[in-house]
């Protein structure tokens, strides 16, 4: 089942005896688990029929024992196991799942880890309940995800603001949602969010950000690059090397793909690069300043900066110095 199907079922009060939620992206796991906790029982029923266990503090025998309890003055007994990746074994779960109680809803949350689907317990779970893998989204999917999230909440966002948020925050969905909620809390439904809103509410400068850095690099605007990178260097916590490198790497990866295109029309290039046609003109400009050799060299310098940030070959370099060196090498 997809995430949307699971959420729709829960809202319709269509429940399953077991939910195995696992994967690298914790956001979807939390959303499903939290919705079950909020929906299955009312406040009065929760006192006797809601059990929350933590992987480091429990074992599979305890999980099964709690799952075998009958509900008291309620239709369901809800058992949620958080951080289930820390439970040492699930051997006892096999026998329970062979004959689960109809009144029990067991939720196992494995964060930052994919389960071993070959284990018998999880094979049975997939037959009688829901096994959902929460996969991280890719860098080139963040902008669309931001737009869809805002749309479902009754808001719109300009293309530049969307890319500003996506490239500054990255693929961490929990952080993205937190920042997007800051954006919308003071806006009326139907409003269109622009880069001024992003700067005011999230604190991402509309002038000093990775989006503008990429534009300056593409134009080989040395003065603007230096201005932005000096701002980054003076605010290392807000602009960590990993975040900047990832954003610039995505830009040059798209540029390399653009350079190899035979059909560079706006419509085709946008489809191939998976970006809005509005931004193709920026890649057309960059293509005049970087041939394939220079663009690939830029990726090498980004890889080098990533290693330096981890202490490889530059144990005493400050984060800001690493970024300055990276930008200098790309430009020259």
UniProtKB/TrEMBL annotation:
<protein>
    <recommendedName>
        <fullName>DNA polymerase III subunit delta</fullName>
        <ecNumber>2.7.7.7</ecNumber>
    </recommendedName>
</protein>
<keyword id="KW-0808">Transferase</keyword>
<dbReference type="InterPro" id="IPR048466">
    <property type="entry name" value="DNA_pol3_delta-like_C"/>
</dbReference>
<keyword id="KW-0548">Nucleotidyltransferase</keyword>
<dbReference type="GO" id="GO:0003677">
    <property type="term" value="F:DNA binding"/>
</dbReference>
<dbReference type="GO" id="GO:0009360">
    <property type="term" value="C:DNA polymerase III complex"/>
</dbReference>
<dbReference type="InterPro" id="IPR027417">
    <property type="entry name" value="P-loop_NTPase"/>
</dbReference>
<dbReference type="InterPro" id="IPR008921">
    <property type="entry name" value="DNA_pol3_clamp-load_cplx_C"/>
</dbReference>
<feature type="domain" description="DNA polymerase III delta subunit-like C-terminal">
    <location>
        <begin position="209"/>
        <end position="328"/>
    </location>
</feature>
<comment type="similarity">
    <text>Belongs to the DNA polymerase HolA subunit family.</text>
</comment>
<keyword id="KW-0239">DNA-directed DNA polymerase</keyword>
<feature type="domain" description="DNA polymerase III delta N-terminal">
    <location>
        <begin position="19"/>
        <end position="133"/>
    </location>
</feature>
<dbReference type="Pfam" id="PF06144">
    <property type="entry name" value="DNA_pol3_delta"/>
</dbReference>
<dbReference type="InterPro" id="IPR010372">
    <property type="entry name" value="DNA_pol3_delta_N"/>
</dbReference>
<dbReference type="InterPro" id="IPR005790">
    <property type="entry name" value="DNA_polIII_delta"/>
</dbReference>
<dbReference type="Pfam" id="PF21694">
    <property type="entry name" value="DNA_pol3_delta_C"/>
</dbReference>
<dbReference type="GO" id="GO:0003887">
    <property type="term" value="F:DNA-directed DNA polymerase activity"/>
</dbReference>
<keyword id="KW-0235">DNA replication</keyword>
<dbReference type="GO" id="GO:0006261">
    <property type="term" value="P:DNA-templated DNA replication"/>
</dbReference>
